[in-house]
Amino acid sequence: MIITAAIIAVLIITLFTTANFWINWWWFGSVGYRSALVTRYIASAIAFLLGGVIAAWFFWANWSYALRDRSRPRDPRLGTHRPTALRRIGAVPLWMVTGLVFLIAGIAAADRWRIWLLFLRGGEFGLQDPIFDRDAGFYIFTVPALVALQRGAITVMLVTVAVVAVVYVIRLGGRGFNVRQLPQRVRTHILALGGGLLLLLGFGYILANYRLLSSSEGVVYGLGYTEANVVRWTNYALAAISIATAALLLLNAVVRRLRWLLIALGAWAITAVVLGGLVPSIVQQTIVEPNELSRERPFIAYNIAMTRAAFDLEGAEVRTLSGEGEPTPAELSPESPTFDNIRLWDYRVIRQTFQQLRSFVPYYVFPDVDVDRYQIDGRMQQVLISARELDPDGLTSSAQTWVNRHLVYTHGYGAVVSPISEATNQGLPRFLVGGIPPDGTGALAIERPEIYFGEQPSSWVAVNTRQQEVSGIQGETESGPYTGTARGSIGLGSYPRRLLLAISQRDRRILFSNELSGDSQVLLRRGIVERAEAIAPFLTYDDDPYLVIADGRLVWVIDAYTTTSQFPYATPVDGVNYLRHSAKVTIDAYDGTITFYRTGTPDPIADAYDAIFGDLFRPISEAPPTVAAHFRYPEGLFDIQAETYASYHVTDPSAFYNGEDRWEIAEEEIERNEGRNTVTEQMEAYYVSLPLPGEPDAGFGLVLPFTPNNRQNMTAWMAGQTNAESVPRLVVYRFPRQANIFGPQQVEAQISVQPEISSQTSLLDQRGSRVIRGNLLVIPIGDTVLYAQPLYLEATATAGSPTELAYVILVTNEQVVMRPTLLEALTALTEGSGAATIASANAEVGTDAPPSVVTDQDGLATEALATYERAQEALARGDWTRYGAEQEALEAILRQLAREIGTPAAEVPADSDDEPAIETQPAEETPAA
Question: Helix 880-901 crosses helix 755-764 at what angle (to 10 degrees)?
């Protein structure tokens, strides 16, 4: 009975401790990357064994030596404890400690498997540091391994010294140590351990010099004058003294010259305190700070060069624009790229609109909205695309059952696609794809709309069960069985698999449910980033994956980076000081097929991982053309490059030190707390598809403006595009420093002080509605820029009403226009019928004088007619909030028109009983020009 119980206990423990291993083993095999798991297991196992065995052997050899007594005759100073008896008494706890050392050292070594593999496989960068003349690869691949070895060895040495000392204290009968009276054997042993510890400390001082290249103590990141001329040589001196002291310790074991040993230890302590602490502070305060620029100039130059190399900024092409003039009529025509690049829909606003108009049922959500481009009606057009994903929390409380969450409601369905620059007459997005089932055509046709793998956090689900899954809308959309084998699924064809899966997922229903059959597949790691991280945890993944419609399927694309914080002399951003876009990851939303494509970006870190995991990466040229056509410049890479370039576009050390021509990413006003307050935030980079100035062909890439430090006029803008191999290219367009180009905050101020805009928004921003300002966009056009900002109208009195596009504001160097549609706004700019902008771009926001207003009676009449027609359309569909807003807008336009022609504005008669009651409000007086 006892034996049976013991066997059962062992089996249960084995099942619970190995369940995750077997699930991982099957999962990696199903997804096609078991070799990557095997490589990690082998590397971890070898590191565990080597680290554990070496540490345990060293520890055992020393305490075992301390227990032995080979002296003949026996030295009476070792006390009355007989060695044999002591070994019997102390062996058990010492062996237990040895086992603990083995486990801890082995686990610590195994956890660093990446460090050891990169040390073995890492190559050269072809870039030497300016201080030690070593390749950057030495600091990234070699130094971390040496530091890990040195720290691990010191830890083992300290534990060993402590235990050996305890053993000798016991053997000495508790009388303590007297250095002069210690037996020769004990003295030699302890001094040898002390010498070894000092050698390790000396090696640590040498490594500390290499790590100074990542120091943040000076005026710039990396070695400064004090570190290079004092701290570095202090470390060398401490290393030499440590080695000399170690030699004296060993010599003292034989010669017994305690005086020399004390002198060496004193020299080490004095050097550490005086040279390591006092002298650097004195040099910094008396030599460096009074002449900081002249002392630090070469080190600033090193930091600039290495930081630009680390973030791939050296190849950024700088061009100059005049910033003068106005866009030509041809550049503002509906056929121009400008028209297609003015994004009318802020992603934060349209996501809510998608949710309200195209979710259809409460368990579908749109977690994110992305910008992409597709060939539509014979021309490339930018669109907003969002996946309709499953959120089982949207089910009613009574429907929140285990069967529903894991077997019935298992996946999202389809996507919505909307042009960025179009809206309906009702101010709503126009949908190219929006229905259930998907109604896209051509490049937007979706034949496999099911989304089992997506951005939405999700638990495991099972397919091909005895329950019918819900696809689309229950009862309206046809639902069939899952076809094929999902990548990364666990089949339930055997009872042991069910048992191990139930243990792994901590869900006993997997084991006992009759709804699961032998044909069922359990899908694990359905989050796309989670799935990629499980296979390649050494890559850093972009926060914004995006969805692509390709060959009738939905495919996710994730931009992946290689990073390090060990690049010499480079200033870090967000904890990393080296960044390369080295991989594109694609994941099929239906079957979970995941592929890692190696971009054409030169990167020794990615090359090292490619050598470690031979079959992980595939050349990017092998990506399907329909997917590769949607590869783009990664947002995460561009944001960090832009933040770095704002300071490091300055390459002259003196100008860099003095902060001359330092830039900032331009800021804009963002509404918070439903419009109750606004905050100023850095602008987000946004995608445009147009020819860069000076280039004939249009490209799809990111754009972001810069302003001078503590000023608000625009000084430059940066564009990022990629080629067919996803190799990034940066182009920076600078304006002359004397040019007065409005920055985003100045444009916001220009918009706010326009009487027509102010009065119109004031009228709309009441009576159960709220005006929302969208993102302010900077659209490059020739030598100048065009600012665009959409205005939205949100009904606050009616819950769940979609946000509507109310107006489009366009701003150039000379005009500000606001019209109901983009086409009307562009036409107004072309005709010169906008309000003039007269404030200087060098003025601070809040000090601009009200601009003069250009008389435009025809334009006001046209706008009045258009407003009246929109009001009638709102009345016809029963949208009273919109109807009232348009009536108030019409009143404001008519009053403005009356002032233009010199006719007093008549009072608006009271509303009749058979029409909706609309409150009237006197229009604000136009300030004198």
Answer: 150
Cβ-proximal residues to 813 (8 Å cutoff; 6+ apart), any chain? 323, 324, 325, 326, 741, 742, 784, 837
CA-to-CA separations, 130 to 127, 155, 182, in angstroms, rounded: 9, 33, 51
3-state secondary structure of 895: helix
Count of helix runs (H) and strand runs (E) in the chain? 27, 30
Together in a domain, 133 and 192: no
Question: Do residues 885 and 749 both lie within one domain?
Answer: yes
| Identity at 656, one-letter amino acid code | F
Asked if 889 and 764 count as a contact pair (C-beta separation under 8 A), the reply is: yes
Strand locations in 503-613 (E): 521-523, 540-541, 546-550, 553-564, 578-588, 594-598
Residue 449 domain-assigned (yes or no)? no
Amino acid at 152: G
In the prediction, which pLDDT does 925 show? 37
Same domain flag for 155 and 192:
no
Residue 361's alpha-carbon distances to 388, 410, 435, 450, 649, in angstroms, are: 11, 15, 12, 16, 51
**191 plus 171 within the same structural domain:** no
Q: Tell me the pTM.
A: 0.86
Max CA distance (Å), the chain: 127
| Angle, in degrees to the nearest 10, between helices 83-111 and 143-171 | 160
User: Structure tokens of 556?
Assistant: 């996710």
Q: Could you tell me the CA-to-CA distances from 78 to 74, 173, 254, 710 in Å, in that order?
A: 8, 7, 19, 76
pLDDT tens for 804-847 read 999 999 999 888 999 999 999 998 888 875 665 534 444 444 43
In a domain, 393, yes or no: no
Query: What are all long-range contacts of 392-397, with beta carbons under 8 Å and residues at least 24 apart?
Result: 392/363, 394/361, 394/362, 394/363, 394/364, 394/365, 395/362, 395/363, 396/362
Alpha carbons within 13 A on the beta-carbon side of 560: 30
Quick one: pLDDT at residue 183? 80
Which DSSP symbol is given to 219?
S
Assigned token pair, 389: 């994903």
Same domain for 196 and 93, yes or no, is no
Same-domain check for residues 872 and 753: yes
Task: Give yes or no for a contact between 186 and 84, defined as CB atoms under 8 angstroms apart.
Answer: no
Q: Looking at 724-764, list the stretches that DSSP marks H as alpha helix, in order from N- to C-terminal side.
A: 744-752, 755-764
Rounded to whole angstroms, how far apart are CA atoms 342 and 779? 7
Nearest residue to 923 via CA among 912, 909, 907, 910: 907
Domain boundary among 132, 151, 177: 177
Q: Which of 30-44, 379-393, 496-510, 686-700 has the lowest mean pLDDT?
A: 686-700
For residue 802, being part of any structural domain is answered with yes
Contacts of 289 (CB under 8 A, 6+ apart): none
DSSP string, 93-125: HHHHHHHHHHHHHHHHHHHTHHHHHHHHH----
In a domain, 185, yes or no: yes
Task: List the one residue out of 776, 689, 687, 778 whose CA is nearest residue 337.
Answer: 689
| Backbone Cα Rg of the chain | 36
Residues 90-124: tens digit of each pLDDT? 678 888 999 999 999 999 999 999 999 999 999 99
The C-alpha atoms of residue 647 and residue 308 are separated, in whole angstroms, by 10
Q: 50-86 b/e with 16+ CB inside 10 Å = b?
A: ebbebbbebbbebbeebbebeeeeeeeebbebeeeeb
Cα separations in angstroms, 565 against 17, 118, 199, 248, 569: 35, 14, 28, 38, 10
- Between 833 and 221, whose confidence is greater? 221
Do 45 and 160 share a domain, yes or no?
yes
Final residue before a domain boundary, out of 269, 287, 305: 287
Strands 450-451 and 546-550: what pairing?
unpaired
Domain count of the chain?
A: 3
Q: How far apart are CA 35 and CA 611, in angstroms?
A: 13
| Residue 170 shares a structural domain with residue 197 | no
Full residue range of the structural domain in which residue 796 is found: 744-901
Q: How far apart are CA 259 and CA 252, in angstroms?
A: 9
